[in-house]
Design a protein that fits this description.
CATH architecture of the largest domain: 3-Layer(aba) Sandwich
Number of strands: 11
Structural class: alpha/beta
Radius of gyration: 19 Å
Bound molecules: guanine
Order of helices and strands: EHEHEHEHHHEHEHEEEEHEH
Length: about 290
């Protein structure tokens, strides 16, 4: 493992710039796909249940950027008291709708709804979030199709920063189905030696100190201290915590930046990549569906 180029100062990875590159690539693919299909561009359906302000912002971004790369955005906003049956009914409709190439159900869902049942209802060919058992199983077997957006964005950032996962000690803090677990598969598929930490991990600091690639994805503000970071390590911060100090990550950036070889800021690191990879997944789902 190593950072190519041998930079002596820590490099702050610009997620906004990398995301813009991905979007430009996606826009070109959309143009080609539409040209080959009588002008019909891929379509992404977004489903948002309830009135969580952060989720509204995230979904708003997804819709704007979908249209920004020339794709169609179809939005379904449902009330907080929506029943599971109603939501499952909508997903069946979207599964059957030929105009819909990707389905994104924004999480979290209100408590009366069983998230696992909703994810399981999504047609895996339209699973642009990569969360169904089919998508997760293919990724775990090392033959991925649609990969969850945030971990895919993390891999893209590592590539962009010149970080080689092969042979590296990669430590992931967090084991969620959205980030930690799929990222462990991606890093393993890239020949890293992967450790996944969680709330029961003994000596979390000690495990983190061994990491060449350290990813924090737990949702705990500044949990990862500067002295948990090995000199020269690549540090990827997936956290987005709203605190009295504003939006902060899971890493104590101000300390960690002094020792890391490369590090993502919050905001402007992983966040913009999630939406960019969603757009890429939608193009992939459309191409696969259209043969
Ligand atoms: N909520 C937070 N991140 C995500 C994501 O990547 N996908 C979905 N569907 N919901 C989220």
């Amino acid at each position: 493992m190593g950072l190519r180029g041998g930079a002596s100062s820590p490099r702050v990875i610009d997620g906004k710039a990398v995301a813009a590159e991905v979007r430009a690539r996606v826009a070109e693919q959309v143009t080609k796909l539409a040209a080959a299909n009588d002008g019909r561009a891929p379509g992404l359906a977004t489903v948002l249940v309830g009135d969580d302000p952060a989720s509204h912002v995230y979904v708003g971004n997804k819709r704007t950027q979908t249209e920004g790369v020339g794709m169609r955005s179809v939005h379904h906003g449902l009330g907080t008291s929506t029943s599971q049956q109603e939501l499952l009914g909508l997903i069946q409709e979207l599964n059957a709708d030929d105009e819909v190439d990707g389905i994104l159900v924004q999480l979290p869902l209100p408590e009366q709804i069983d998230q696992d049942a909703v994810i399981a209802a999504i047609d895996s060919r339209k699973d642009v979030d990569g969360l169904t058992a089919e998508s997760a199983g293919l990724l775990a077997q090392g033959r991925p199709h649609l990969i969850p957006c945030t971990p895919q964005g993390v891999m893209e950032l590592l590539r962009h920063a010149g970080v080689e996962p092969e042979g590296a000690d990669a430590v992931i803090v967090g084991r969620s189905i959205l980030v930690g677990r799929p990222l462990a598969s991606l890093l393993l598929n890239a020949n890293a030696t992967v450790t996944v930490c969680h709330s029961r991990t003994r000596d979390l600091a000690g495990v983190c100190r061994r990491a060449d690639i350290l990813v924090a994805a737990v949702g705990s503000p500044r949990l990862v201290r500067g002295d948990w970071v090995k000199r020269g390590a690549a540090v990827i911060d997936v956290g987005m915590n709203r605190t009295e100090d504003g939006l902060v990550g899971d890493v104590d950036f101000d300390r960690a930046v002094e020792v890391a070889g490369a590090i993502t800021p919050v905001p402007g690191g992983v966040g913009p990549m999630t939406v960019a990879m969603l757009l890429q997944n939608t193009v992939l789902a459309a191409s696969a569906r259209w043969g």
